[in-house]
Amino acid sequence: MSRGFSADDVSAQSGRTFLVTGANAGLGFEVSKILAARGAQVILACRDAAKAEAAMDRIRADVPDALLSSQPLDLADLEQVREAAAAVLAGPRIDVLVNNAGVMIPPRTLTKQGYELQFGVNHLGPFAFTGLVHPHVDDRIVVTASIAHKSGTMDYSDLSASRGYHNWARYQMSKLANLLYMFELDRRLGAAGRATQAIGCHPGVALTELQRHLPLPLRYMTPLAAPFFNSAAQGAWPTLQAATGAHVQGGDYLGPQGLGEVTGRSGPARASRAARDPKLARELWERSVELTGVDPGI
Predict the structure, then answer these.
(1) Which of 10, 65, 131, 284 could bond to 296 as cystine, CB 3.0-4.6 Å?
(2) In this structure, is residue 297 part of a structural domain?
(3) β-strand pairing of 253-256 with 266-268
(4) 225 domain residue, yes or no
């Protein structure tokens, strides 16, 4: 039985280019640092330019010869997503796109276009960005989901959450959308004869800035729970496997191998029956085209 995948298993990546969204902190930062240490060219796609610069400085402190650049990307604004995609398309081709950026259980907030923030940033923004740049990606498109997807249901009736807002339910829905999208994207890429593959992953429970909106009592307890959860570096292992693993195939879904997929080295993860429903996936795709105005053309 395989011992599972960790950062130590990431092979040399010289000559390859990776674009990582949300790369200035948490999982995205750890993924970018390991990729840079293995010789990859890494584009840090971040909403905040100053934070992107600070992240690159931190990586270079550990990896002095790191090949890094940054790209402004605000997934909460579809107009800016289009601008970022145009800039990416004007640059060198990309081997791997890592859709990592996300938000978790914030107070009710809307995107620039009026959608609930978690569905907007976790799904609609990545759908639009990937839909625009996928012809420029040669190898893999990674989509980050969560074990929370297993309790998610798709409900398009109130995408601004104007009639009521339950932050966990909206987060679960956005993570179910991530997996539905990944499976449908991989099916469509294959049907179009593309060599590019879509792969899903989740970090288990990793202690990152994603938890900043937890209620205060839970935030105070987080340091006490640290021994039972993944660090950000450990939570990055499934993403690194999805992005670089030699035996990964399109449509694979990867996550920690410990009890409940909460911690541990990376390997095959379990997707819910709903996440694997092709009818739900097609409906989400069609809705996403309508909501974003981006048709990936596959």
Answers:
(1) 131
(2) no
(3) antiparallel
(4) yes
The dihedrals phi and psi of 72, each to the nearest 5 degrees, come to: -60, 135
Confidence label for 227 from pLDDT (cuts 50, 70 and 90) = low
Comparing C-alpha atoms, which of 119, 50, 43 is closest to residue 87?
43
CATH number at residue 246: 3.40.50.720
Asked whether residue 210 carries a pLDDT value surpassing 70, the answer given is no
| Set 156, 165, 171, 181: catalytic member | 171
Query: Is position 2 within any domain?
Result: no
Residue with tokens 């639009």: 128
Tell me how crowded residue 95 is: count the other CB atoms within 10 A of its CB.
Answer: 20
Alpha helices by DSSP H, the chain: 26-37, 49-62, 78-89, 117-119, 125-133, 167-191, 216-225, 232-235, 237-244, 278-292
| Angle at alpha carbon of residue 210, lines to 207 and 211, rounded to 5° | 65
Look up 171 and say whether it is catalytic.
yes
CA distance 218 to 241: 30
Name the residue range of residue 189's domain.
7-290
Q: In what order do the strands lie in the sheet with 137-144?
A: 67-72, 41-46, 17-21, 94-99, 137-144, 197-201, 253-256, 266-268
Q: How many domains does the chain have?
A: 1
- Cβ-in-10-Å burial (0-12, 13-18, 19+) of 84 comes to buried
Q: How sure is the predictor about 78, in pLDDT bands with cuts at 50, 70 and 90?
A: very high
The torsion region of residue 294 among left (phi > 0), alpha (psi -120 to 50) and beta comes to beta
What is the overall mean pLDDT for the chain? Answer: 94
3-state secondary structure 178-189: HHHHHHHHHHHH
Query: For residue 79, how many other CB atoms are within 10 A of its CB?
Result: 10
Q: Answer yes or no: is 296 within a domain.
A: no
Sign of the CA dihedral with 9 first, then 35, 100, and 133 last? negative
CB 112, CB 79: distance < 8 Å:
yes
CA distance 220 to 33: 28
Looking at the DSSP bridge assignments, the partners of residue 256 are 266
